[in-house]
Amino acid sequence: AQSVAQPEDQVNVAEGNPLTVKCTYSVSGNPYLFWYVQYPNRGLQFLLKYITGDNLVKGSYGFEAEFNKSQTSFHLKKPSALVSDSALYFCAVRDSGNTPLVFGKGTRLSVIA
Amino acid sequence: EAGVAQSPRYKIIEKRQSVAFWCNPISGHATLYWYQQILGQGPKLLIQFQNNGVVDDSQLPKDRFSAERLKGVDSTLKIQPAKLEDSAVYLCASSFGGAQNTEAFFGQGTRLTVV
Questions:
Q1: What is the pLDDT of residues B62-112, one digit of tens each?
Q2: Phi, psi angles (nearest 5°) of residue A93
Q3: Do B103 and A34 touch (CB under 8 A)?
Q4: Which of A71, B4, B62, B66, CA to CA, is 20 to 30 A from B81?
Q5: B22: phi then psi, degrees, rounded to nearest 5
Q6: Chain B closest CA to A84's CA: distance in Å?
């Protein structure tokens, strides 16, 4: 069965600094990987996905993620953090079979001015 | 483009009572999902519909939870009777197709508190 690990419950970063939110995954076949963001009292918003091709995926709001097959990782990155990026971030994975999307437990990002 | 609509936003009920949540997906989206998000955890899939047929309900507690998607558009999730551990946010999502590489779009959720 597929699984996702987000090893950090909380990430703190100063505004203007680069940020990284970590995600590792486990699937039996080829992975389809997603990042979502959740603001308070809001639903999840899609940021980006990796299906195939270029290992560096660019998404909404200046976010990008790097797929690393050998390390089974899909870390979310942004070159310069904004205070408005403060939110809860979820990594999710499914394989190419008929399996549901599995989410990590989430990482709370706090960007400090 | 209108997003996924859910109602109510909040609901408080006593244990052993019943409750129902409603979801209207994005127009044209054939696939509809219900997720349960317990505080401090990631969302967990309860049921997935493709049009009005069930694709996956393996994690739905069928002794108390039920869901339907009549006419392949909006959907209702019901809990009867509710337990304290059902306190969570119930998220509805939809996607254009059922392909594994398709992202889902989420509603704002219904926060259920069982007392």
A1: 999 999 998 889 999 999 999 999 999 999 999 887 666 788 899 999 999
A2: -145, 150
A3: yes
A4: B4
A5: -120, 145
A6: 19
